[in-house]
Structure formats: C-alpha cells, structure tokens
Design goal:
The protein is an alpha+beta fold and 93 residues long. It has a single domain, classed as Orthogonal Bundle (Arc Repressor Mutant, subunit A). Helices cover 56% and strands 19% of the residues. It has five helices and three strands, in the order ααβααββα. The protein has helices spanning 6-9, 11-20, 28-35, 39-51, 74-90, and strands spanning 26-27, 55-62, 65-72.
Length: 93
C-alpha cells in the first residue's frame, strides 16, 4: 500500500496546496480567508511548505504594507498529484 506524504497530510498544509494548485499566485490575505487559519499558524505552515520546496514565496510591499504572495512549485504540484493518487488508491477510487 502506498504511503501518504506526511507533510501534505496535515490539514492546513493540504488546504494551502489544494487552493494554490488552481491559481497562479495567491497573497497571504487570500490564503487566510480561504483556509480560515490564524495569521501565525498560516505563516508557520507556509514556511514549512517553502522549506520543503513545495512553494515559492515572494515578499514585497503594496504601498506601506507588506505583501506576501505564494505559488506552488513544480515539486509541490508533483507531490500534491502523487498524494491525491495515493489517496485514491487507498480508497479504491
């Protein structure tokens, strides 16, 4: 039996990746809105995904305010697709 990717199996990280595979870029505010996560928890989980090479994170300013934008990398997309496929196999779908 295939093993699920433990990094993606965490609920918030899976929600982040699941949303990002459908868009080119998303800012921190949108990710917080979509996931319902607190800013602190979202920040930690984005950092873990970035460290694993699953996300590209771009930090800049919009006016006087910090702007953090995220994008799924090819590795992140590949790992997400493998995760979904392994889950399908486990559920016999």
């Amino acid at each position: 039996m295939s093993k699920l990717n433990s990094l993606l199996h965490q609920e918030l990280r899976l929600a982040i990746i699941s949303f990002l595979v459908g868009v080119e870029w998303a800012d921190f505010k949108k990710l917080a809105e979509v996931t319902g996560a607190t800013k602190g928890n979202l920040s930690v989980q984005i950092s873990k995904l970035q460290k694993a090479g699953y996300l590209k994170v771009k930090k800049s300013f919009k006016g006087n305010y910090p702007l953090t934008e995220c994008q799924v990398t090819e590795l992140g997309r590949t790992e997400f697709e493998a995760y979904v496929e392994n889950l399908r196999k486990m559920l016999n779908l």
